[in-house]
Amino acid sequence: MRLITTTDMRRLIHEMGLAEFNARLLEALERDFGRWEAFKLSPRHATYYPQGVIELMPCADDRLYAFKYVNGHPGNPHQGKLSVVALGMLADVATGYPLLLCEMTWLTALRTAATAALGARYLARPDSQVLAMIGTGAQSEFQALALAGVLPLTSVRYYDPDGGAMAKFAANLGGRIPRLIPCKNAAEAAEGACIIVTATAAKRRNRILTPEMLGPGVHIHALGGDCPGKTELDPRLLDRARVVVEYLPQSRVEGEIQNRPQAQVHAELWEIVTGRRPGRESPGELTLLDSVGFALEDYSALRLVHELAGELGIGSEAALIPQPADPKDLFGALVGDPA
User: Fold this and answer.
1) Distance between CA 262 and CA 99 in Å, rounded?
2) Contact indicator for 285, 48 with CB cutoff of 8 Å
3) How many domains would you assign to the chain?
4) pLDDT band per the 50, 70, 90 thresholds, residue 225
5) Is residue 139 part of a domain?
6) pTM (global) more than 0.90
7) Helix, strand, coil tally for the chain in percent (to 5)
8) Under a CB-based contact definition with an 8 Å cutoff, are residues 299 and 33 in contact?
9) Which range marks the domain in which residue 43 is found?
């Protein structure tokens, strides 16, 4: 089994380049969403606590099985810890043997941003030049750069109530995005935006965006609402937008649409990718990808990393599965001569 540590992941990104990795990941996501019906799908298993959530996210086809362990603890930064950490595994379906154990904290951020880019490819206006980034925490730079890979962005307007997070965002993206515009509030950030990303962490029913803030033809990518009672948008937006979700049974519980049980969902993302349902149909319509994160995205990311690690010789072999000479003699392999 190949082990990919945080050191290995940094090496992979540095050797490939972030833009090339983002492009390969977007390609992998689009290919896998395009064969949606080949997968065994289920909502993630979530265990909720007052301070956050811990989840297991499985997804498999007839060749590979993937799952991710991930948390969401919005208060962690006050303790000097990340809000989201993750580990992932990829296994061979034919034997059940694990093939890959991988860091997924960075990889989750990368695949989450790639999902935003995939949604924008089908739902945003192709001439979108102005991005509004509301929430400049750990996910924000990944989002901006992934979207810049599929849209002709000329500027990013951004806001966060934490001034330090805004300064970090500007420092990290200086020279990578043509123009960065700090804003005093969410309404100012949304002014004139063609695409708006909401990436906030507070575990409550927020109304960060309202219909009055938006011009015509905006695409919203809402990713901060990802568990019961944690949402970002004024529910009136759900009545006005062409709403797309990743996996409806999960989104009904965790997404923005939990606030509007009667909301008309236009499609799941795979239906847009395969052409079964149309994406954006006019320049003036309001579109929304209610993105809670789905296990298929982790499958795609783990599969890609496994392939790239083999090609580039990155990672190490981890002896986590016994290899007895006689597969029926597991006991003897444990107590016998270690030599």
Assistant:
1) 43
2) no
3) 2
4) confident
5) yes
6) yes
7) 35, 25, 35
8) no
9) 2-107+296-322
